[in-house]
Amino acid sequence: MDSQKMGRRIQEVRKTRGITQSELAQKVDLSTKYISNIECGFKTPTMDTFIAIANALQCDANSLLSDVLDVTTSQESGLVSKKLLGLPAEEQRRLLRMLEVMIDETRSK
User: Fold this and answer.
1) Whose CA, among 33, 35, 44, 109, lies 20 to 30 Å from 92?
2) pLDDT (tens digit, 9 = 90+) per residue, 21-44?
3) Other beta carbons less than 10 A from residue 99's beta carbon
4) What is the pTM of this model?
5) CATH classification at residue 45
6) What distance in Å separates the CA atoms of residue 57 and residue 51, rounded to the nearest whole number?
7) Exposed e or buried b for every residue in 9-34, given b needs 16+ CB within 10 A?
8) CB 11 within 8 A of CB 69
9) Do both 15 and 61 map to the same domain?
10) Is-contact 38 5, C-beta < 8 A?
């Protein structure tokens, strides 16, 4: 597992939530230094610690592992599809045209 990628994602979510390393450490009963080591990729948390961190950050495990799981891409595509279906038909068509252009540009590189 790529501990650095997972650690960066934990840090991103923590900062987005406005939580300091110290606050997260308190919530999961760990030292601030250990949280720092996880975020820097020096330590890989145990499953129990990982779950505690996800719960403290109020996010799902896939969000924290999105950079290291291959299956996450298809899950994210499914989420985008659900969001797209929730839009009015004209907006769906507009976004799909934009996406087609972006995909075509990527393929031509």
Assistant:
1) 109
2) 999 999 999 999 999 999 999 999
3) 12
4) 0.65
5) 1.10.260.40
6) 10
7) bbbebbeeeebebeebbeebebeeeb
8) no
9) yes
10) no
